[in-house]
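tool=predict chain=A
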Amino acid sequence: MIIQPIIQRRKLLLLLTIVFVFLPRFGISQNTEIPEVLDAELSAYTYPYPVHYIHLKMENKACQMAYMDVAPTQNNSLKPTVVLLHGKNFMGAYWQQTIKYLSGLGYRVIVPDQIGFGKSSKPSLHYSFHQLACNTRQLLDTLGVNKAVIVGHSMGGMLATRFALMYPEVVIKLVLENPIGLEDYRMIVPYSTLDASYQRELKTTEESISNYFKTYFPEWLPEYEEWVKVPAAQTRSKDYATVALTSAQTYEMIYQQPVIYELEQLQMPTLLIIGQADRTVVGKAAIKDKAVLARAGNYPALGRKAVNQIRSSKLVGLPGVGHIPHLQAPEAFYKALTNFIK
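tool=predict ok
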């Protein structure tokens, strides 16, 4: 009569132990409560580390740029600062496990939300990678960082490239994780006016976000749901028109400001980490020519081409991995990253 409850309690304890030990390996956020409605600056959404702000002025508009600045958990002054730059459909919070891993190895990790994204201001203005790079440089100057490893994922890869071209003296090493912009989208995606892009963004739903995000991964797992739920909560906010306009404006930035033609100018050691199953194309839904669609977004080929353009570069291909290696295959991503920057 007494033995059975004891066995059941032991099984429960064993299950809980497994959950708490192994979930962090798979990049699962500790943020389990996501509000049904989130405003433009994600005020009610908790980031994994304290968020700070710097004040900027862009086109005579006062803006706040959010960032996380995470100190190393072990003292190692010889290791460089690492800056993590997010993709277009994300914010700094999705770097949570990468931050934890790098800070645990003794790296200081700085993770900004660019203006127009995450917890930062979302003004209506002409967005440019040059301006975002300038903002990032101002952030690093404010924090007293004059040298850093710059890591950019997706759109963050385009920004990281522009930053490295503008401020090569700051960049010790450059890491591009499945960067978009390894092809000129103007050559393959029909042009869309800002007004048309804005109207499309206004029609965004949780279902459409989920369907799009599922193209990032060969297999969809429950731990990816947070990155759908957060932007979906914004679509239910009275602020969504602001978020939608910013999204349309930053799409225009990506479309009109390629960096691919300047890759050969990069002088610093550069690593490309490319999930080989990725077929992301910005504006892919607008491509009607099946022949163009078939050859667009071929990341294995794009990665090889890019590494041949960049003078001092290395390519690490991750078989079976999609657009976001640091979420889908964190251990492989960490290995490639730390082998390169140590």
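DSSP finds twelve helices and eight strands in the chain. The longest strand covers residues 61-70.
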